[in-house]
Q: What sequence folds into this?
């Protein structure tokens, strides 16, 4: 599949075009790359025109790298066999110089587009021993200076090592332990993205533990994680629960729709972040919220779920109690459930009662049989807070089973209004 895609790209790009970075690495590991990274001496505008005309590709945009060897990376969305592939393209002038500024040896290899199609591995340009390190399963820096140039590479080293099951070179480990404060210089949105990518992998606690062991969590969360062993165990339990039948039923019962957060991360990654957030101190949570661009939706999910868990502890098992709780936290009921089953099992019984009420009554009866306009017409009254009060009482009566249809709703409203008037 990838070979055919590369053949199509070859029709557009000049001969001086190379696969680079993770794309070469993944192909050598017999993995399907998530995207295609290319460097070329060709004119980007001409390439863009050809990609659009010949293959209906979309120019998604470009980002400034602000690196000495690479100023801009252009991203194209290339349609191929019913899906869009991400193609990242940057220009180069000096191939050796470009590779010398890469992060790790296994990412500092290039393969001419034409040679990669022929699968001629003898033509791979590998000045820093990336093929050897790939076989040794080692993450090794091209140069420690490159980590000073972009300190986010310290986090990326652990993320890539975790995703591939590789070890990190001792020299690189030592550098991180000594120089972890350099991470403070990196934009928080880049740190967040790299961190969440690491969480998205299986056995995410190993990634987090590696960051913690090398002091990087001091920078990510403001201070070191307290009681880390409890957090590792919580993440293990959470990952087991995510694939369980109980979780599938919970998601299905509550019609939870799969969606992405911050443009690319699924709910499972967010649930892992929630587990971490649960174990952070109040000051660490405050630091995390105020320093990272979480967005309103993700911030509300983290904070809302935490508040819902706190209120669940003291929730009275009455119709009014369940109703008021669900009014506030219905949208967080699924993450609350996951958190209860994995982080606070002592609340399972209470949560089950809320869930049963939600499925058995709330979904059916939480919408009043009469709207505000009908109530005003029925009673001959004008808009006022009284209408909202009547609607509130009507819903409670429906949930308690005292009102089962529109006719009974009309009788209830008249009776309630009559009692108010004395």
A:
């Amino acid at each position: 599949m990838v070979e055919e895609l590369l053949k199509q790209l070859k029709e557009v790009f000049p001969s001086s075009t190379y696969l680079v970075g993770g794309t070469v690495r993944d192909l050598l590991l017999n993995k399907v790359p998530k995207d295609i990274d290319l460097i070329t001496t060709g004119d980007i505008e001409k390439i863009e025109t050809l990609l659009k005309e010949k293959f209906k590709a979309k120019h998604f945009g470009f980002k400034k790298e602000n690196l000495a060897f690479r100023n801009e990376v252009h991203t194209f969305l290339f349609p191929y066999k019913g899906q869009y592939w991400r193609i990242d393209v940057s220009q180069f002038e000096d191939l050796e110089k470009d590779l010398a500024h890469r992060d790790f040896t296994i990412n500092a290899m290039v393969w001419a587009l034409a040679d990669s199609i022929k699968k001629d591995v003898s033509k791979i340009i590998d000045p820093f021993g990336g093929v050897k390190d790939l076989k040794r399963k080692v993450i090794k820096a091209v140069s420690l200076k490159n980590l000073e140039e972009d300190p986010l590479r310290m986090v990326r080293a652990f993320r890539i090592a975790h995703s591939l099951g590789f070890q990190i070179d001792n020299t690189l480990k030592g550098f991180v332990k000594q120089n972890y404060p350099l991470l403070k210089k990196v934009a928080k949105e880049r740190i967040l993205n790299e961190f969440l990518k690491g969480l998205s992998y299986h056995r995410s606690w190993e990634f987090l533990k590696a960051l913690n062991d090398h002091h990087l969590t001091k920078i990510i969360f403001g201070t070191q994680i307290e009681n880390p062993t409890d957090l590792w165990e919580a993440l293990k339990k959470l990952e087991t629960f995510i694939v369980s039948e109980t979780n599938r039923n919970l998601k299905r019962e509550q019609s939870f729709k799969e969606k992405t957060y911050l443009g690319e991360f699924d709910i499972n990654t967010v649930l892992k972040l929630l587990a971490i957030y649960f174990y952070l101190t109040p000051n660490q949570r405050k630091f995390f919220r105020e320093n990272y661009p979480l967005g309103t939706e993700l911030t509300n999910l983290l904070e809302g779920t935490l508040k819902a868990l706190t209120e669940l502890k003291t929730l009275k098992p009455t119709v009014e109690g369940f109703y008021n709780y669900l009014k506030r936290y219905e949208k967080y009921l699924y993450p609350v459930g996951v958190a209860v089953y994995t982080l606070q099992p002592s609340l399972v019984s209470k949560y089950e009662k809320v869930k049963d009420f939600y499925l058995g009554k709330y979904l059916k009866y939480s919408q009043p049989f009469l709207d505000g306009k009908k109530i005003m017409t029925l009673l001959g009254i004008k808009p006022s807070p009284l209408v909202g009060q009547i609607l509130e009482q009507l819903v409670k009566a429906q949930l308690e089973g005292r009102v089962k249809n529109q006719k009974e709703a009309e009788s209830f409203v008249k009776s309630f209004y009559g009692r108010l008037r004395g």
